[in-house]
Amino acid sequence: MSVADNSALLSVRNIQRSFRGLRVLKDVQFDIAPHSFAGLIGPNGAGKSTLFNIISGFLKPTSGSMTFDGTDISPCSVQERSRRGLVRTFQTPQIFGGMTVLENLMVGLHKNSRSGITGNLFLSRRSRREYREAYQAATSALDRFGLAHVGSQNAQSLPGGLQRMLELARAYLGKPRLLMLDEPSSGLNNDEIGQLTQALHQLNAEGITILLVSHDMELVRAASIIHVLCFGEIIATGPLAAIQQNARVREAYLGA
Amino acid sequence: MHKTLRPRISLVLMAVAGVLLWAALPVLVSRHVVDLLVFAGIYSIAGLGVSYLLGNCGIVTLAQSVFYGIGAYCVAYFSAQHGLPSGVGFGMGALLSAAIAFTVGWPTLRLSGHFLALATLALGLIGQTLFLELDWITGGTLGIGGLPKLSLLGWNLDTPQRFYYLVWPIAVLVMWLKHNLTHSRNGLAMRAMRDAPDAAAVAGVEIHALKVKMFMLSAILGSLAGSLFAHYVGFVSVDSFGVDRSISFLLLAVLGGVHTSWGPALGAIFVTLVPEALSRFGEIHSVLFAMTLVIAVIFLPHGLGGALERLLRRKAVA
Q1: Disulfide engineering: B223 pairs with which of A247, B50, B87, B97, CB 3.0-4.6 Å?
Q2: pLDDT tens for residues B100-157?
Q3: Partners of A72 in the beta sheet?
Q4: Residue pairs spanning A and B at CB distance below 8 A
Q5: Chain A partners of B198 at a C-beta cutoff of 8 Å?
Q6: CA distance, residue B175 to nearest chain A CA (Å)
Q7: How close are the terminal C-alpha atoms of chain A, in Å?
């Protein structure tokens, strides 16, 4: 179960991706160390979302490979990657609008249970036990993520900040090893960003590796290592202070 | 303690009264109305199949008449033509329906929204044509008659009253199953993929496989209803399995409310009894029925079941 310190949890090698001849990702490679808190930044159109979609399995790269915990995950589906511990959130919160907040969280535990449709129909012992366990785990997550007061509300009716928290809580319940967050602070006020940062630090302290895409420097500051993606390539890697001094990064952000 | 207990008691009393009323109904109403109620029971089983798909997965199906037909023809073919026990017909219908649902569902359930609805409509039309053309099995336009009456533990179900006591417990069983499924691991997964498929995939929900399985389950219910129908009527012909039948299954599911487990039963009772009640107004009754439907859909967006559930909840809280 334990990973040697020198081996990366996620390793991205020579990823290329073109859309109708336009090369969005030219040659991306970087490593994410286990238990680290990494940030991925870059100007608009740098290819951050494309890269995120490729790592999480929603898009296939034109070429290149990825390993997660030493296993090649290139051929794996989104679901398979998730079962291995690679869990992401979305830029616009993807919540299950027709369900209660508690039910949303219970879906987060889906992959950790086994009962099939027949068992569910006829209330098999496993089906009942898994539902009860999901209910309990989701209920305790409500408290932890400050959602207890809205647990029985329809998720659609939540304000934006709570929808973000809901998405984070649901991802957490999926027992991620690498949690990938896509612009988690967009639409949040300063208080909420503070709460989010605190929650992320706590998750990281519990051993969950975090990879964060954000424009929000306040949030990016929380990351201990930052990768800068620009025109389809990683142009710099390091702590924030070093990144801010980097000539290529300054050029990319301030214009040539 | 006392306060929370009392509404429960009143609900239990209402449930007991409902069961007693249900049991007494065949004695209280005319044979003709019992006959209609048997059809309502049969339709609600097929409609529940449609409602499983629409309410939980957001899939509109217009192919239910095909599985309804398969269930009916299997009973006619194996029981009437070959003299095999009725269980064989029921079983073969369910198996064949599940197999066809799998074969057709695997490629088409990758479609979504209107495209998928159109694909199921195509399946409905193909089924209707095949029922007509494969006349060496189905009897074509002539159909197959002389189906034996069902008997259960030596009890001959040869009157509408007796069939009523078979059909409705089966319908209630299917509603109970739907209720169980809705409040289970896969029930949650279905609603999740209906609302936000990408996030459901990240949660590990195997979306396509789950849709195919639900399509198969829905088809089995359609087939079960068709088999019951064939035994009840004693005669099957292609007229009973057209696309209009699929539309009426969809209609009763929506009218009853797809988010409740027992809505389709209310929808089925509505579409069988209301036209009958309106027929005394003469020729205009079909127009009146259409108007009633429009009014019901506008004023009861969650269907009859949804409206009634809300009413009961208010009662329970008050």
Answers
A1: B97
A2: 999 999 999 999 888 999 999 999 999 999 999 998 888 888 888 888 888 777 778 8
A3: A67
A4: 97
A5: 58, 78, 90, 94
A6: 10
A7: 47
CB contact under 8 A, B186 and A117: yes
Interface residue of B176, B202, B258 to substitute, partner A, most A CBs within 10 Å: B202
Query: Torsion-angle region of residue A100: left (phi > 0), alpha (psi -120 to 50) or beta?
Result: beta
pLDDT in tens, B11-59: 888 889 989 999 999 989 999 999 999 999 999 999 999 999 999 999 9
pLDDT > 70 fraction of chain A, expressed in percent and rounded: 97
Instruction: For residue B54, list chain A residues with Cβ-Cβ distance below 8 A.
Output: none
Give A236's strand partners: A228
Other residues' Cβ atoms within 10 Å of the Cβ of residue B301: 9
Contact A99 B201 (CB under 8 A): no
Distance from CA of A193 to the nearest CA of B (A): 22
Measured distance CA(B183)–CA(B171) in Å, rounded: 19
ipTM score of the complex? Answer: 0.93
Which has the closest alpha carbon to B166: B34, B17, B21?
B34
pLDDT at B316 over 80: no
- Tell me the pTM: 0.92
Cβ–Cβ below 8 Å for A110 and B205: yes
Q: Which of B233, B240, B222 is nearest to B96 (CA)?
A: B222
Other CB atoms within a 10 A radius of the CB of residue A163 amount to: 21
